[in-house]
Amino acid sequence: MNEFNDFVSQGYWWLSLLGGLHCLGLGLYIRYIYREKNGNQKILGSIFSLMALYFFTGLLTKDNAPAPIHFIFILIIPIYFLLMPMLYLYCHRSLNDAKAPSGFSPHFFPALFVAMTVLATVGYRVLNQGELPDISLSFNSGLSHLSHLSLLGAALPGLLFIQTALYFYFILKMLSLYPSRTSRLHQESLKDIKFRWLLVLTLALMSNWIVRAVLVILPFYFGEELIHINHVAAKLVLLLTVYILAIYGLKQITYAAFLRGRLAQSQQKSPMKASQQLLSSEELAYLQKLMQDEKK
């Protein structure tokens, strides 16, 4: 049994490293190499960078962590509150073809509030205790023995769960208002490709959110012991999702380039057709009348 646990722990470490590097590389590529006119690639790159952070946290253990591991996680969790607002802004700006550069949005205020609350609570605890606190998140002995910082750490995953559910509802509602291709009665356009990409991205993240909720969050609140296999399964599903999104995104980019090329060719041909008609309809009618008069 110990050998199996060691194998799972090693697999979890390597999976976290592999997923973190791939998400970080993909995020940097999208942000700095793949460019859009409205700067939406920065938001998408930040989303994958947050995924990289989630993977890299799996590299921390009690042996190599520079501070108590629960203490580090409490400081990191507020950053995850940025993920769903960024996904919402990315979908909203993409569907509405926003031209203004993306800046600080009011959607980021909850994450800022959570971060300030965590920092204030941590600072108060450190000043009173004089050292980095060792936080307990166990519910076995009830809530009375938990400190304010421990209660906050226990509440953060639930708050993040609620925020994620609300944003998924608003994003799906926004996507449902997009007119389908059949209702527009014309051939496939670049907007259709963009819509499908947003839908696939949203459903992929939603699927991972459900998997993580079932394997990690719910057992945590029900007091069940979290085993490594749960974390491994959650991160493995996320890594596979990242690969699928990368392949699907590459396919959509290629197809979009094909449509742009075909559109450019049609625009080049249309002026030539117009130039071939050197005479107007009135001039042609006048010449035809002259020819008829000559025959008479």
Please identify the structural class as seen in this structure.
Answer: mainly alpha
The rough form would be described as elongated
Q: How many discrete structural domains? A: 1
N to C succession of SSEs: HHHHHHHHHH
| Oligomerization status of the protein chains | single chain
Rg over C-alpha atoms, rounded to the nearest angstrom: 28 Å
CATH topology: Rhopdopsin 7-helix transmembrane proteins
| Mean of all residue-level pLDDT scores | 78
| Sheet having the most strands | none
**Could you tell me how far the N terminus lies from the C terminus, measured between alpha carbons in angstroms?**
110 Å
Relative strand content: under 5%
Number of strands: 0
CATH architecture term: Up-down Bundle
How many alpha or pi helices?
10
Question: What's the level 1 CATH class?
Answer: Mainly Alpha
Low-confidence stretches: 181-187
Description:
- The protein is mostly helical and 296 residues long.
- The protein has one domain (2-295): Rhopdopsin 7-helix transmembrane proteins (Up-down Bundle).
- Helix content is 75%, strand content 0%.
- It has helices at residues 2-32, 40-56, 69-80, 83-95, 109-129, 148-176, 181-184, 190-221, 228-276, 281-295.
- It is elongated.
- It starts with a helix and ends with a helix.
